[in-house]
Amino acid sequence: MPIDPTPYRLAAPAALDLADRPTRVAPLADDKADYKKRLKKRIKRMRELQDLLYADDRWSLLVIFQAMDAAGKDGCIKAVMSGVNPQGCQVTSFKHPSAEELDHDFLWRTTRALPERGRIGIFNRSYYEEVLVVRVHRRILESQRVPPTLRDNGDVWAERFTSIRDHEAHLARNGTRIVKIFLHLSPEEQRQRFLARLDDPTKNWKFSAGDLTERGHWAAYQAAYAEAIGATAAEHAPWYCIPADDKETGRLLVAEALVRELSALPLAYPPASESPERLAELRAQLVAEAS
Asked: For the whole model, what pTM was predicted?
């Protein structure tokens, strides 16, 4: 069966209700062996495209992962990016901002981690946290030292959406292709995954009481995600709202989406530094050494 991420791609601003978006779809693989085969094929193609991206040295790819807790961001990044050259790929995870980061605008810390030309950068969470968790927990905004006249003007979220759109448009104009992945998880699947973490001693470390506290804000997070995705979707920085209840299906969709986005870039190997005639001469010289 074909793997088509197009139905989950959002590339223009629009009102969005995540309740209308599926968290589970029909499996894209017949069994575990078929899943591994299909994923391996896409990883191989991504590795080829990464080599071309590096050689071309004009473009970069920024992949942003956002999701609720237990949606599988870490596992998806590990599975999908397992075959790429680590020298051409960097993963950055963003936690609570430091004191230094709080002394700058909300885009500063992620801007420092942007991928250079020829490389793939992966953000595990990103500047979108500033219109997600900060919106759900207003006290965080109050601790960010934003002048009160700017913070309390009633337009702070719309203004941050504008800043994000302008930022992404600027990056796109300068050769960074942005792909944003939202792993769309259902509350019941999250509950089951939390229980699995509690029941497995080797996974207890992944769970904290704060996870349940955040789960209590589910509706607020869904509304914040919906508005953020709908306000910042663009052709140069599309969102993929990936059904994430089935990890294997989600990973296949993400892998195919990244292959397609990379394939759409006008990549080319640079010309040789020597003429064909000169290369032939040099080759003949190397062959002659054997005799």
From this structure: 0.94
